């Protein structure tokens, strides 16, 4: 089980769920009982909000351009990418996003490492040992006390 409050775990999905809960909460406060009619606005807002881990909005990371809201549709210009240009642009964006994710992963690892303490054991130290049964591993036939699940 992982939670967003434990830095040693991933927590990405938990953080996303918490963000969406906050957005839904604000939507309920603003729109009252008709909040369910505005879910598309919440989705639009989330997909166009800046994410620090990828240094872009999810829409921009996926499609390689900023999303134009209906207010900006009158400013559409003709810029079309075809063939090799499209492949080159997409590859460049993918490399850029991977680099941003790698940098963010290193930052998050350094934050988690600050809180973690290395475990050091001495001879004759008392430790707790969790022994869970390993089903399906029977090497010694009838003499099961020699099987790996016995310590």
UniProtKB/TrEMBL annotation:
InterPro entries tied to this protein: Integrase_cat-core, RNaseH-like_sf, RNaseH_sf
Presence of the UniProt keyword Transferase in the record: yes
Alphabetic keyword roster: Nucleotidyltransferase, RNA-directed DNA polymerase, Transferase
Domain Integrase catalytic: 1-66
GO molecular function, a single term: nucleic acid binding
UniProt keyword annotation of Nucleotidyltransferase present: yes
GO biological process: DNA integration
Protein name: Putative reverse transcriptase domain-containing protein
